[in-house]
Amino acid sequence: MGAELVAxxxxxxxxxxxxxxxxxxxxVLREHVAQGLLRPGVRLSEERxxxxxxxSRNTLRESFRLLTHERLLIxxxxxxxxxRVLDVSDIQDIYQVRRLVECAALRDLGAGPYQLTDxxxxxxxxxxxxxxxxxQRLGTANIHFHQALAxxxxxxxxxxxxxxxxxELRLAFHVMDEPRQFHExxxxxxxxxxxxxxAGAGETAARLLSDYLDDSRQQLVDAYPKxxxxxxx
Length: 233
What we know:
The protein is mainly alpha-helical. It has helices at about 20-35, 45-55, 55-70, 90-105, 115-130, 135-150, 155-175, 180-185, 185-200, 200-225; strands at about 45, 75, 80-85.
């Protein structure tokens, strides 16, 4: 069984308060997953998280249900709610969805120029993280980069879906023994995709991204059999 989540690991920036919704509580927890702060298998304490976020137990339970639907959490009868532990089939499916959404977003851009503010910001954040040798932050910046690519489709529904998909992907990153070796080689590829988009070549950027996703997926799939079996909470 994973360690129980303590309140200090949940940092909403401000308490949510009764006037807010379960959706906002879920958004805070989803972002913690996307940042790599909530690890697979960890048990979530309703009392401690509710106190940290400033929400009622009922509101928190509704947020847990939302995140369970997104495959980020799993509820075990009489045992509690845990962060999900992914398997290889999850990885394959996540990458299939990413290919459908991210690559299509780039292919459908047409002629430039494109609105690349968020893409550039994610690359800049990744460069700073690499300079600081902060590999967890580099992984987070990479997640934001791909969220920004999907965002070029200008689809609010697509953005909502990809937030969950990419947070779920972050759970897979924990299987990698060497975060630097996994994340750092993708920074130049992110930079290359950005330069290609700046040149107005969305179709070419989509091909670069397709190869990138193939390589990333294979790395994760190959890493899973080499790890000790994850204990299911």
